[in-house]
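REQUEST
  id: r-88c1
  op: predict_structure
  target: D-psicose/D-tagatose/L-ribulose 3-epimerase
  payload:
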Amino acid sequence: MNKIGFNVLAWSAVVSDDLKPIIERLKTIGYDGVEFFVGSPDEKAYREIGQFTAQTGLDTTTVFVLGPDENPIDPDAGVRARALDKIKWTIDRSHDLGAKVICGPFHSAFSTFAKRSPTEDEYNRSAEILQQAGEHAAQAGIILTPEALNRFECYLCNTMDQLIHLIKKVNHPNVKAMFDTHHANIEEKKLGDALRKVAPYLGHVHISENDRGTPGSGHVPWDDTFSTLAEIGFKGWLTIEGFTRNDPDFANSIGVWREFSQPWEMAENGYQFIKEMGEKHGL
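RESPONSE
  id: r-88c1
  status: 200
  body:
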């Protein structure tokens, strides 16, 4: 069975001691790992929580986003340089946490639009930054997995076809692709077909319901998803990413205006759902 993780953004976007009892309870439920959002500036906290999580017996992965002033596809070389600096800083903090995988839509700035379709120049700029970031990640033994987002949050990479186009341009062993069932449910025709396309490049998977609530409670085609993951032989993380309004600043930044599921209901029932689907489909 693949390792199962849970993203603590359901509680907080800040890495701090407040997460310690949450980490301990996730271990009790049966999770193999915890996914943290890298963004808060307290560097010491990343090292301390990384040590605590390891002592608890859990592995870690991380996620982050970039803003418009640190956009890898901006025509301004200075903005692109800030993007690379932020990605390198995130790699260092992820290393402090003990993570081996970093995911997120860091191919471009989150929710930053140009009022047109993406250009080949933008893919080339993104690829150049990600290739340099891949070199830094290799030194830390970390895999970067850029994520395709839905059209309301991003315009560079909405589909696996676009993400594959970018990953091929990057052409670095430490830069792979991520698949998120929430975004794919919006943008792909068939989730199984999309997974087959991205299989040679796939490095991380988010298990996310159509409304960001508890996996299995909505209309994502889960049988197709899990059977295809088994078919392509995916051995990486299956990490639940669900959102709440527990951290209002983060919730406001991503357009979460209501509760989809309570965090512990999502964690407990979501874990059982993944275990059942994994056993059903031979993952």
